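User: Let's play a game. I give you a shape written as tokens, and you guess the letters that built it. Ready? Here's round one.
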């Protein structure tokens, strides 16, 4: 079973500001509830092909994974996929002007295998809860 979780939020800040902050991997531990560390595997700046390693806690387990940037349109869209980790995952951020601020959409999709495939519904629900918390934290930081 595939996992496909889409969450969005309205942040009352300009698109350029929201996108620049959210797309910077160094800020991930500040607004992603589960991410504890980030390490650049390739030189800065962020670009297609950049690889960034993350360590996180998810469903009570420590997981380490590496994302590779697949698409980057500054201020509009960032797409990254796991190059290493427990199961293939693709994360997409989009930003658009809306209602005096920025509508940010966070989408996680993937196809877990083995035991992960059996727990996909539980995983999707946990991801949805975590994404809501993450976007709330991002909103709080940027609107402060």
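Assistant: Ready! My guess for every position:
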């Amino acid at each position: 079973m595939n996992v496909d979780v889409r969450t969005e939020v309205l942040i009352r800040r300009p698109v350029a500001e929201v996108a620049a902050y959210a797309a910077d991997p160094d800020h991930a531990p500040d607004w992603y509830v589960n991410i504890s560390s980030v390490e650049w595997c390739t030189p800065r700046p962020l670009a297609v092909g950049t690889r960034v390693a993350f360590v996180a806690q998810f469903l009570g387990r420590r997981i380490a994974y590496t994302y590779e940037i697949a698409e980057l349109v500054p201020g509009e869209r960032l797409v990254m996929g796991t190059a290493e980790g427990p199961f293939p995952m693709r994360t997409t951020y989009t930003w658009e002007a809306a209602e005096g601020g920025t509508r940010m959409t966070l989408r996680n999709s993937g196809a877990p295998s083995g035991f992960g495939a059996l727990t996909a519904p539980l995983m999707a629900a946990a991801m949805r809860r975590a994404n809501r918390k993450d976007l709330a934290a991002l909103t709080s930081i940027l609107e402060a």
